[in-house]
Design brief:
Number of strands: 7
Structural class: alpha/beta
Helix content: 25-40%
Number of domains: 1
CATH superfamily: Spore Coat Polysaccharide Biosynthesis Protein SpsA, Chain A
Radius of gyration: 17 Å
Order of helices and strands: EHEHEHEHEHHEHHEH
Distance between the termini: 24 Å
Number of helices: 9
CATH architecture: Alpha-Beta Complex
Largest sheet: 7 strands, mixed
Shape: globular
CATH topology: Spore Coat Polysaccharide Biosynthesis Protein SpsA, Chain A
Strand content: 5-15%
Length: 251
């Protein structure tokens, strides 16, 4: 708990058996109330490792639903468990769990309802091993997105995110893509709904076991990001209406 608020860390897992325990051991369990893992039909021993290290809440997809589909299961479960502050952390150890207290403080003290761990603030991305082509694509896409959605972030593509319960209940994330573009659709919805976003500098590590999408999928992802930003622009200018921006019905 943090000031009476329930803190939940959610782990979207796919073939994370080699890095899951290292990630889990760094989660500050004196602050975090629950850890929820969703295994997206991994081909390795992810679920076995999760059970061995003591993760109580495990969701197992029988068929691979994709990165977005994984997150949908996690956020719905976190809300069901009564989470007030929900942190999405990749179990591939690319992002350090040691930033969780800072992210919880920002949301728990009601400074911002959303916190992103940015790899681009500072100069850590390339030093951490981010491939040059990904860095250049990140900068180009972020510049374009800032212009189209009328916001200012250092990057839209980090996988390290924290949300208040109000945010998760206030956007229609279940309608989003099941693929990697889910992350950008979610940020677009958050910005359109008027929720403020904080960023904290986040060191990152690129190594063989860390998950990463290949070049063809990166290109498809980039085109998807541009499509989402284009829709956001049309929506905010009143030139079109997209159902993803409608507020969800919450009981």
């Amino acid at each position: 708990m943090y000031k009476g608020k329930k803190v939940i860390v959610v782990l979207p897992a796919y073939n994370a058996a080699l890095t899951l325990e290292q990630t889990y051991r760094e989660i500050p369990l004196d602050l975090v109330d629950e850890v929820v893992l969703c295994d997206d039909a991994s081909r390795d021993e992810t679920i076995s490792v999760a059970k061995q290290i003591g993760i109580k809440h495990i969701i197992a997809h029988e068929k691979n639903k994709g990165y977005g589909g994984n997150q949908k299961s996690l956020y719905n479960k976190a809300l069901e468990l009564g989470g007030d502050i929900v942190i999405m952390l990749h179990p591939d150890y690319q992002y350090t769990p040691k930033l969780i207290p800072a992210m919880v403080n920002i949301i728990g003290d009601e400074l911002y309802p959303v916190v992103l761990g940015s790899r681009i603030l500072g100069k850590g991305a390339l030093k951490g091993g981010m491939p040059l082509y990904k860095y250049i694509a990140n900068r180009f896409l972020t510049l374009t997105q800032n212009l189209l959605v009328n916001y200012k972030l250092s990057e839209y593509h980090t996988g390290y995110r924290a949300f208040s319960r109000e945010v998760l209940q206030g956007i229609n994330f279940n309608q989003n893509s099941d693929d990697f573009v889910f992350d950008n659709e979610m940020l677009s919805q958050i910005i359109y709904a008027g929720f403020a976003i904080a960023e904290v500098t986040c060191p990152t590590k690129y190594f063989e076991e860390a998950s990463s999408i290949n070049l063809p999928r990166s290109i498809r992802y980039g085109l998807g990001v541009l499509r989402v930003s284009g829709r956001h622009f049309l929506q905010r200018m009143g030139l079109a209406k997209f159902s993803m921006y409608k507020a969800p019905n919450v009981g």
